[in-house]
């Protein structure tokens, strides 16, 4: 998706599909999110977004909202659980961030474009 400015320049602002492209391989954010919810107890909501990477172009970052009192998983713990559940190592998140809540639209949908910016600044 993009925006045309007054001079006719196109600026790409987002993707229509929720895909992370890591070294030419497409990673479905929804697939990783679903597996995190299935394998990690205490995770209430999750969003997986792309963060920039010099070598691969993009890499996955998992942003988690945890139930109260749940300790934050380490990146190693998260990756091991996903790999043990059958996710390919190349698809596992390379960053994990914990949030109290997600930025949302007026209808309650998570604003992934805003999360990508925040994740890129924190990774």
Mean pLDDT score, rounded?
A: 91
CATH class: Alpha Beta
H and E string:
EEEEHEEHEH
Strand content: 25-35%
Number of strands: 7
**Largest sheet, spatial ordering of strands:** 5-6-7
Task: Give an overview in words.
26% of the residues lie in helices and 32% in strands. The protein has 123 residues and is an alpha+beta fold. The protein has a single domain (20-122), classed as GMP Synthetase, Chain A, domain 3, CATH 3.30.300. The strands form 3 sheets. The protein has a 3-stranded mixed β-sheet. A two-stranded antiparallel ribbon has the order 1-2. The chain has a two-stranded antiparallel sheet with strand order 3-4.
Task: Describe what is shown at a glance.
The chain has 123 residues and is α+β, with helices and mostly antiparallel strands. Helices cover 26% and strands 32% of the residues.
